[in-house]
User: Fold these one by one.
Assistant:
Number 1:
Amino acid sequence: MANYTLKYMARRDLEQAIDWAAAEGWNPGLHDADCFYAADPEGFLMGWLDDEPIAAISVVKYGTSFGFLGFYLVKPAFRGQGYGWQIWQAGLNSLQNRTIGLDGVVDQQSNYLKSGFQLAYRNVRYEGWGEAAPVSGPADQVVPLANVPLAQVIEYDRQCFPEERSAFLQCWLNQPDSTAIAVVHNDSLLGYGLLRPCRQGDKIGPLLADNPAIAETLFLALKAQVKPGQPFYLDVPEVNTAAVALAKKYAMTSMFETARMYLPTVPELPTDRIFGVTSFELG
């Protein structure tokens, strides 16, 4: 009889889980694995049937109070046989006594509700296209994020995320072939954003800003880096109506959505400052 075991992923196993995610149409970033693993090397579980990997889940821990669940995948040939449920239970157990967040596909929402998760809002993925003559915002307001002290970026990010995530950000904001920018006034950070290359096109995320005007400035500066005819994506919390309006203003079209859910309660976050989600897999 086949033997089903759960193990922490090695770095190479995470690459395989990311390939599975790509096959599901999630369009991961080209350098996601490095930063995901940096966030929490023991935050990824893989289910093995004898010597074959068939299931995955991420349960990345941030600080002492928060965890994010993602990469919940079972290879198609092994679905409906209880393997996913076992790795799901193990993942939840590893995050005991923490608030847990996830971005679930809509057809799984009812199952997450049965496990006690509460729906906070929908995230909507918008798709746009690089232009030959891109519109750009006021360049004098935008500086490379590398010019801003990392401690200041971490503090700003913490206001928009349930826990501190410095290990993750140190990698995420310095990915190869990415663009990280900020708006600063009188030495105060007013917003920042990142554009990174993905399997298909580029993604903006995070996009955090004090107000819609700053978000638009950052958005246009990042959008201007997209090659003509190349797709780019922005994952928007639908509850932020200004973020939705920004995507629509620049003719982006909705193509995918997730349910942002939390267990046991929904944390209080300034969603009016979150114009682009960092990652559906890690929050």
Number 2:
Amino acid sequence: MTQQICRWGILGTAGIARKNWKAIRLSGNACVTAVASRSQSSAQLFIDECSAQVPPGTQPAALGSYEELLQREDVDAVYIPLPTALRHEWVIRAAEAGKHVMGEKPAARNANEVREMLHACEQNQVQYMDGVMFMHSQRLPLIRSLLERQEIGTIRRIASQFSFAGDQEFRSSNIRTHSELEPYGCLGDLGWYCSRMFLWILEGQLPKQVRARILTPLQGEQSPGSVPGEFSAELEFENGISASFYNSFVTENQQWLHVSGSEGYLRVDDFVLPYHGPEVAVYVGRDKFSVDNCEFHMENHLTRHAVREYDANAVGAQEVQMIRKFSELVNTGQLDSSWPEWTLKTQRVLDACFESAQSDGAPVALS
């Protein structure tokens, strides 16, 4: 039986699209049929450079306009890595053209825009999913099983950091420091992952309220205003559970998650971009403190749990699983409403955090 193929169009040539170019090639149920940029030459350069490392099989068409891509009959789904400020328009236009949509994150400038995007997708019977790759890793079922087995007892606290130190060129010219294109700065680019992981751990439960602060603003040379360059947030959930995250464009690479429970803790050192290797791991700690008269000891009791999954460039990598899952939904016509729900909830958390930070850390409630 011939494998049904989802035909992808890439709408924009941002760097992350190169990773998904290869993921599409490795998926087994998808192919790229067209790439659009603001000029045909830019689209062709992207195709040529990607093809040199990852030959696509059939050569995709290079297009000089986004609209031209949406009108093609050989495109079933579009991947949209455009700047955040442009996603609202092009997700809606893609949906109205009958194309299924995978969009980069943050999904839009605010939750109202996300609602309009998702409404357009629902009205036109097309799938929407954001491009959070870790949601498709086999590590998540492993984490869920550890939590459900009460390996750390009752969850009380979750903390996370996702950061990298951008150089001077990044700070002055990258679109992530441009207030009109990426108004949430590091909160949007990095905080999306922390917030999503918190929501996933708590099975979709939104925080009751948040408090947040911009610790360091950044402003690119062409930007009319500043964006968060260093950001911290505190979230309060039901049942006394609290969480905090820290994001930064000025602190070097870290991407850790720590879940504290009544009987231990769970630790992931690389929850967004897995470390290079054939396994993804989770650590469970049950450290013990003992006292015997004058002897005091803190004992480290750490267990490593892992599943076989290469970090990248392999058929089982999380980004390939993401493309494969989305393409399967398109090929079968069985739309999954849980994916747009995750997107809207995550955007609502980011909106509340940004609102709090704009109000000097005042608490913002989520209904």
Number 3:
Amino acid sequence: MAEFKSGFVAILGRTNVGKSTLVNLLVGEKVAATADKVQTTRTAIKGIANRENSQIIFIDTPGIHKPKTKLNETMVETSFGVINEIDLILFVIEATSKDIGKGDMKILEKIRESKKKTILIINKIDLVKKEELLHLIDIYQKEYNFEAVIPISSLKEKYKNIILDEIEKNLKPGPAYYSVEEYTDQTLRQLAEEIIREKALKFLKDEVPHGIYVEIDKMKFRKNQKGENLYDIEATIYCLRNSHKGIIIGKDGKMLKAIGQAARIDMERNFGTKVNLKTWVKVKEDWQDDASIIKKFKLQ
């Protein structure tokens, strides 16, 4: 029988290259918020892939970007801070890049410093021609000795085992750090916050920037009248301005209702129980520079 392997794998990349979608695909569960927006992931989220001969713990880091607030600084620190703690890096880039941009070069420099085993994942290959893809592979291979280069479209299931097999090949023998039933080390409260924020980002499009923060005020487990398991969850969506509050609530409360409904459906699927969700919106103008909030985004 093959020797059991385990290890921690960081997923690094610029904002919006598809890291969270990729970690959700590899883990097979919804552990990371995915939205077509910059900075969707604010903390280093762990997702766990349990296989017959291995356990792979993924750390989906915040995208690398130019920090403008304390929150942004913490996010970038978290991404680079992860490198020292892991066994392998998945470096995700976009196939549409013509060359190595500043952000990707900054990540490459950190990878070089660490000398960590790294697999290059080229995402969104459906958007480019083969010659462009080959050119991109060539310029990246001149910069670093990658263990493998895997071109993918992260939305497609067929790439899942290709990547997991390559990761497994590069891990050392080790124990299972988590129970095989677990797929994340986030608490249900953190998952609930992530899900609500993701739905808000998706529904609000570009109307409200990333100045929203979700906090679960109450999460109580009980049985309903039919004897079914149920979570009563109360959450507050904080935003930076009064004008944002109006947009989040929407005309006759329709936007907030749509966000809450979509989040509840996702939670029920994830938690395996009924969910009674209530949401409020409050303005907190300085939260992105509030030390008590920012500490939640630091790497634990």
Number 4:
Amino acid sequence: MAQEICRWGILGTAFIAKKNWKSIWNCDNATLVAVASRSEQRAAEYISENQAQAPFDPAPEAVGSYEALLARDDIDAVYIPLPTGIRKEWVIKAAEAGKHVMGEKPCGDTLADVQEILTACEANNVQYMDGVMFMHSDRLPAIRKTIDTGSIGDLRRITTQFSFFAPDDFKEGNIRVSSSLESMGCLGDLGWYNIRFTLFAMQYALPERVTGRLLTEFGRGDSPNPVPVEFSGEMFWPNGVSASFYCSFVTEHQQWAHVSGTKGYVRVDDFVLPYRGSDSGFDVASHSFEIQGCDFDMRNGSRHVPVPEFSNGRPGAQETKLFRNFSDLVISGTRDPFWPEVSLKTQQVLNACLESARNNSQPVEL
């Protein structure tokens, strides 16, 4: 019996979609049928570029409008990497056309936007999921087991950083420094991952209050307003656990997370995109401090927990699992409510942090 296949379309020719083109290509339960752009010529050029490295047979068709792609009856699901400022319209149109939707993050500019998106998806019985790849890594269940089995004691503190240094051409032309296209700047682009990992560590319990601090703002020449390019936030839970995060376009590549407890901590140096290789593991540490007379010794109690998983571009990489898992849901005809729920929670925390930052870092209760 032939395996069922989820038939994909892509709305837009964004740079990140190149990675996900190959993710679909690596899936044994998916294929790419068509790519839409605002011009058929641009869609055809994009297809040609990607076919050279990851060729589908037959090649995806170039479509000259988003509406035309959504009208096709040979597409089950769409990936929408359009800018956040215009994405809500097309997610809703896709849902109303009966297409399952994977959208880029942040899911919307406001919490109300995301609620409207999820209402449309539910009303049309289609699956919604955001494109956070690390959620589908084999590493996450291993970290969950380490925390839950008491290896680091009782959870007390979570800290994360996700940043990269933006060059001049980024500042001059990238959509992430345009308030009309990506109004939350680094907070939406990078902070989404910080907040999602923190929620994961807390088993998706929302904090009771948050604070945010807008450290640096910037806008490209045509941006109506500046956007956050350096941001820090704090989250607090009623059980005494707290969390902090830092995201920015002004410090070089870092993507680390620490989950600290009463007996030790988990350290992940690459929680968003695993370093190149076949081990996406993490470290667990429980150091000891010993005093013997005049000798004060801090003893290193670190151990590495290996997780066999390729970092990128392979059938077993986390981005491939993202599309494979989504395609499985589409083929099965079932909707998993976890994915829209966790998107909504992430958006809620993100917007509350920004609200706090815009109000002199006053705490915002959720």
